[in-house]
Specification:
355 residues; alpha+beta; Nucleotidyltransferase, domain 5; five-stranded antiparallel β-sheet; 26% strand; elongated; Integrase catalytic domain-containing protein
């Protein structure tokens, strides 16, 4: 409730210049079908006690063991950073104490193969290991789903080409779990964009109806193409795949993803759309898919202005830093609790952000 007073500022945009666009993002997670764990089936096994998790290494190995490297182990948040490895090499036993939360925790421990045990102590009751203390590369191993996020915006028609800040109003947002399992980042980003396109067309129809246009169910594709729109992503691979005049199947190994990309290309071209790539620092939907700073999203909600080109984006970041210093606050993180919301045009709506 730290930001309960933040509202969505609805900006005055002339109806003839009003456009609707969508900003999509995704955070990829593994699926078991494609190999979630670093270590596959072996004779090694877990032992759980009231205070510890111990991995018994029957098979010879050289590297240290990570608790996310194989199935049926502990939740990473429920164990302490300390790792105790007891190695048996040529009938000699040695003990190594270190932490599994560091970026080099999978390093080789000996020049020769060893067997033995690796012990992890459980957290005290009521305590949990902070997600920030878990190296992102290893936490990814435990994610069995992908998270999608989208923000539909009303914007001034100058936004796609202007180097200065332009008026925008957040119309709706959603953070959701992708229903289909994904094999890589491109696959999850593609699914998020497919869903986002469906959302933005609805708001384009609302704008056309506000202009007095009568739409028919049969001809809506032709009528809605009168109104240009943009879809914004920070995935360079997705942007390249949609923008280039090549067969998507030649750019990605997953054939199902290539079909989705083909449909996106057809829809964007036929319905007068334009896909735009932005740097990750300019991506508004990041807080909807991952634990990351949400200052930029709150700044846009509060000021009603945004820029997607480099010069305008740099100016906005300077304004954001200046505002933070003036208010004496540090950049806050994690707006991932935002799930679903909508606004109507023409008023200021208090938005209760649970962050």
């Amino acid at each position: 409730m730290d930001h309960k007073n933040i509202g969505i500022k609805v900006m005055p945009i002339p109806l003839d210049r009003l456009r609707a666009g969508v900003v999509t993002d995704a955070s990829w997670g593994n699926s078991k079908e494609f190999g979630t764990f670093l270590e596959q089936d072996s004779d090694d096994w877990w032992e759980e006690t009231s205070t510890t998790w111990t991995r018994h290494h029957v098979m010879e190995r050289r590297t240290a063991f990570h608790p996310a490297a194989c199935p049926n182990g502990p939740d990473l948040h429920d164990v302490q950073p300390m790792r105790i490895t007891e190695m048996n090499v040529n009938d000699r036993t040695s003990t190594i104490r270190d932490e599994w939360t560091t970026s080099d925790s999978l390093r080789p421990l000996a020049s020769q193969s060893w067997t033995g045990t690796t012990t992890f102590y459980k957290q005290d009751k009521g305590q949990m290991l902070d997600s920030k203390d878990i190296h992102a590369g290893y936490e990814q191993l435990n994610k069995l789903y992908s998270q999608g996020g989208e923000i539909v915006i009303f914007y001034d028609q100058a936004l796609p080409e202007s180097q200065s800040l332009q008026n925008v109003s957040v119309a709706s947002w959603k953070s959701y779990r992708l229903k289909r399992q994904t094999v890589n980042t491109l696959s999850s980003e593609t699914q998020a964009l497919v869903r986002g396109l469906g959302s933005v067309h609805w708001y384009r129809i609302l704008i056309l109806e506000a202009r007095g246009l009568q739409l028919s169910a049969r001809e809506w594709h032709r009528e809605v193409s009168r109104l240009p729109f943009i879809c914004v992503t920070d995935s360079k691979s997705l942007y390249d795949a949609v923008s280039k005049y090549t067969n998507p199947a030649s750019q990605c190994g997953d054939k199902r993803t290539s079909i989705d990309i083909s449909l996106i290309k057809q829809e964007v071209n036929n319905l007068n759309g334009n896909i735009r790539w932005v740097d990750g620092r300019t991506m508004l939907a990041d807080p909807l898919t991952k634990e990351t700073r949400s200052d930029l999203l709150r700044h846009v909600l509060r000021t009603g202005q945004w820029a997607i080109l480099e010069e305008g984006s740099a100016l906005q970041h300077k304004l954001l830093e200046r505002t933070s210093r003036h208010e004496g606050t540090e950049p806050m993180s994690n707006a991932s609790a935002i799930e679903t919301g909508e606004i109507s045009l023409g008023f200021w709506l208090p938005l209760h952000l649970h962050v």
